[in-house]
């Protein structure tokens, strides 16, 4: 392993251990002032630049290898193809590294997915460390990272619009609220930063919410409320205008890893206590609990009256939700490592895993995986 990577991992592990025990903004700030690893930042940044160049070379070589393999396949074992044959085969081979054959980059099967094949349109590489959270709204991509920063990009051009530095450690959750023209960031420091969309101001942070006592792993805006999920075993409800803490949902016996809105009146939460809980957001009561085979639940998604829950054993559980009751429909297996992210869109579920892949599942056609996207060189986490 490269020395830079060793140092970076050592720094990350050290901070994760420390913040896991402390978790408050004040204690983190005091720790960072005396942390010996802070002196290594310049060295790490310098070597990260070199690594980015090497990664670009490796990606180009992998793309060329993939094209050659597809050329061999397309030749249909013709050992001595003519020049015209080779030209015709090459015309059918894409240069896009996100589209390849089944063994290399992406396998595309029959699908009811209405938006055609998936191709990598652009790679944005302004972050100098791991990207830990994403949000998309009105043509903008919000990206949080391990270094505590949140960068905002134009989705069409990839241009960075703003670089905000409000957290000192990993940003695990982002949420956007159009009504208030604000967005929210939260993470390992246990606080929620409230940002104004007025990007002309040098510091657009409106307020810092400190009511959680643990890391914050998920946020969602629904029904004119902001909901936040934390390792302190609670979900907190906020007024996105006044920023008042309206309520706290308790019931999980371990940390809450993520959450998803089900309409305007219900909420589903994924817990490290191996359960998914469904809440009535009006009363704050848990109206249904789903047990997920004694494995930590990492994320949840909802669509077409189906609830999807990924667990630490690399499996995705599918349930039919009807009148506050659930019926197990299927389990989706295919990832080699745990699945940290789920996202549902019309007719399809997308899952992102530590195994560096994103899978697309056709939920209207026997729950089959009809695409595996490869391209990331690192794990896909929270």
What does this structure look like?
By secondary structure, the protein is α+β, with helices and mostly antiparallel strands. The chain folds into two domains: 3-91, no CATH class; 131-374, YVTN repeat-like/Quinoprotein amine dehydrogenase (Methylamine Dehydrogenase, Chain H), CATH 2.130.10.10. 19% of the residues lie in helices and 40% in strands. The chain contains four helices and 24 strands. α1 crosses α3.
How would the global form be characterised?
globular
Our Rg estimate from Cα atoms comes to 22 Å
Beta-strand fraction estimate: 35-45%
SSE succession? HHHHEEEEEEEEEEEEEEEEEEEEEEEE
Class of secondary structure makeup: alpha+beta
Contiguous uncertain segments of 5+ residues: 1-22, 92-110
Strands ordered across the widest β-sheet: 1-2-3-4
- How many helices does DSSP assign? 4
CATH architecture of the largest domain: 7 Propeller
- Share of residues in helices: 10-25%
**Please, how many domains?**
2
Q: Could you name the CATH homologous superfamily of the largest domain?
A: YVTN repeat-like/Quinoprotein amine dehydrogenase
Task: State the total count of DSSP E strands.
Answer: 24
Indicate the topology:
Elements: H1 3-21, H2 25-34, H3 41-74, H4 83-91, E1 131-137, E2 140-145, E3 149-154, E4 160-165, E5 171-177, E6 182-187, E7 192-196, E8 205-209, E9 216-222, E10 225-230, E11 234-238, E12 245-250, E13 256-262, E14 266-271, E15 275-280, E16 285-291, E17 297-303, E18 306-311, E19 315-322, E20 325-333, E21 339-345, E22 348-353, E23 357-362, E24 368-374
Antiparallel strand pairs: 1-2, 2-3, 3-4, 5-6, 6-7, 7-8, 9-10, 10-11, 11-12, 13-14, 14-15, 15-16, 17-18, 18-19, 19-20, 21-22, 22-23, 23-24
Pfam family, one: WD40
Organism: Paraglomus brasilianum
Protein name: 4665_t:CDS:1
